């Protein structure tokens, strides 16, 4: 399938993620930094909407997939060469929030498959970060660095949500165990995350061009 936005040139796709449980609708990141929603089949197959906010190629993209009492499937994350991670909603063409704690290219990002507020990201310094947005939105909850001190450029959670596999630019693969206190969501995590998202959305609406959220006390929970 050739992806093209309206009458402009073809989109150079750099990352892709299907919506949870959906084989038709997906989001893609592009070389120029824009993000697009698209579908494989139907009367409007191809790209439908554009989301702009990055200033470099979108290296990673992931839609929210943790199943629970509240549906967050409208949320997705992107990482970029512009050193940021951005949180988006399918309902808003601008990012809801920009995470700016990295000092190098952010190569990949992925939501936890079991915890609604938890995601992981890797960057060019070899750092693997875990963010629990119910605890803090300004700094990672915990971080670790690759033993090889090389750039980490890809990550994947296991289906259990207790391990992360990360690869570096020299072909090494690292497996990290995530501590149970961090990996396993408490019963109230979904309602807390709903409140977190509502705060972020309210701030995004009132701070055009300076997307932020009130800082909460971070919880430092190490990798096991």
TrEMBL record:
One of its GO terms (molecular function) is dynein light chain binding. SUPFAM superfamilies: WD40 repeat-like. GO terms for biological process: transport along microtubule. It holds the Pfam family WD40. The gene is DYNC1I2_2. It is found in: Cytoplasm. Keywords: Cytoplasm, Repeat, WD repeat. InterPro entries: Dynein_IC (IPR050687), WD40/YVTN_repeat-like_dom_sf (IPR015943), WD40_repeat_dom_sf (IPR036322), WD40_rpt (IPR001680). One of its GO terms (cellular component) is cytoplasmic dynein complex. The keyword Repeat applies. The keyword Repeat applies. This is Cytoplasmic dynein 1 intermediate chain 2. Its main location: cytoplasm.
């Amino acid at each position: 399938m050739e992806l093209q936005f309206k009458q402009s040139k073809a989109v150079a796709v750099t990352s892709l993620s299907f919506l949870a449980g959906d084989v038709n609708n997906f989001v893609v990141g592009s070389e120029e930094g824009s993000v697009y929603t698209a579908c494989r089949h139907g009367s409007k197959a191809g790209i439908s909407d554009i989301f702009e906010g990055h200033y470099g190629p979108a290296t990673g993209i992931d839609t929210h997939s943790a199943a629970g009492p509240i549906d967050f499937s409208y949320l997705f994350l992107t990482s970029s060469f512009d050193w940021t991670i951005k949180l988006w909603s399918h309902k808003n063409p601008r990012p809801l929030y920009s995470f700016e704690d990295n000092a190098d290219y952010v190569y990949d990002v992925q939501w936890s498959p079991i915890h609604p507020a938890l995601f992981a990201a890797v960057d060019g310094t070899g750092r693997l970060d875990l963010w629990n947005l119910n605890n803090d939105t300004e700094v990672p909850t915990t971080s670790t660095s690759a033993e090889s001190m090389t750039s980490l450029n890809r990550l994947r959670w296991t289906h259990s949500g207790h391990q992360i596999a990360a690869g570096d630019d020299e072909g090494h693969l690292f497996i990290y165990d995530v501590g149970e206190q961090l990996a396993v969501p408490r019963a109230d995590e979904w309602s807390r995350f709903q409140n977190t998202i509502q705060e972020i959305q309210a701030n995004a609406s009132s701070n055009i061009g300076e997307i932020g959220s009130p800082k909460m006390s971070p919880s430092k929970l190490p990798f096991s």
